[in-house]
Amino acid sequence: METYVSPIIVALDFPSAEQALVLADQLDSKLCRVKVGKELFTRAGPSILTALHQRGFEVFLDLKYHDIPNTCAQAVLAAADQGVWMVNVHASGGLRMMQAAKENLVKHSLKTQLIAVTVLTSMSQADLQELGVERSLEQQVLNLAQLTHQAGLDGVVCSAQEASLLEEKLGKAFLKVTPGIRPATSSTDDQQRIMTPEAAMTAGSTHLVIGRPITQAKEPNQALEAIIHLLPQ
Ligand SMILES: O=c1ccn([C@@H]2O[C@H](COP(=O)(O)O)[C@@H](O)[C@H]2O)c(=O)[nH]1
């Protein structure tokens, strides 16, 4: 598989395979990867992965598994068996769960990237407090990222606001996959911890997850290209 020219992963959050593929067909698979999340996968099933692979896209299956170790390890294996480029679990599922998931990939010689969600980008410090988490949001992200690193995973989902801290503590090679990316003119929607694409890359994000600013644009591929042009080389 040749190297991609862009770190952008377009989130295909649609209620049907047809709508997702209409959008995917407007995107250049050499310019981005795509993400299939809970809504699309639950409605369309695994055949959406095949359809996207046939169009030349690498796919991040964003189902954020959060369960006991055996269940997560088997779910991650099931995803990897379908040829996805990346899959994820929740870091708050714990060290043993993440280790079991990683070990299952290694045991089956699968190279699928495995990452873990730290704190959702839709959450603020106040949301964490509601859950009984008293430490700072940044510290919670760092703790979960360190646990993920210890478990041998490839990286984390975090906001770009934490990317520089994680680069400093865990290195450049540890992936920082960052949703909550908003070009300066876009609306925030339900995201709390946001950053522009160019600032996110400068801060140390390795991949930018972008949904609505591209998928709801009149010309999605033009929106994608415009964002790519803003990125530092
Ligand atoms: O912390 C997280 C984890 C995942 N997401 C997902 O990323 C996209 C973002 O879409 P936008 O339209 O650009 O807001 C979406 O699929 C989320 O499920 C996230 O936003 N934050």
From TrEMBL:
Pfam family of the protein (one): OMPdecase
Domain Orotidine 5'-phosphate decarboxylase: 7-227
Entry annotation: catalytic residues: K64
EC number, UniProt record: 4.1.1.23
Matching InterPro entries: Aldolase_TIM (IPR013785), OMPdecase (IPR014732), OMPdecase_AS (IPR018089), OMPdecase_bac (IPR047596), OMPdeCOase_dom (IPR001754), RibuloseP-bd_barrel (IPR011060)
PROSITE patterns for this protein: OMPDECASE
Function recorded in the entry: Catalyzes the decarboxylation of orotidine 5'-monophosphate (OMP) to uridine 5'-monophosphate (UMP).
Assigned protein family: Belongs to the OMP decarboxylase family. Type 1 subfamily.
Annotated NCBIfam families: PRK00230.1, pyrF
Name recorded for this polypeptide: Orotidine 5'-phosphate decarboxylase
Name of the encoding gene: pyrF
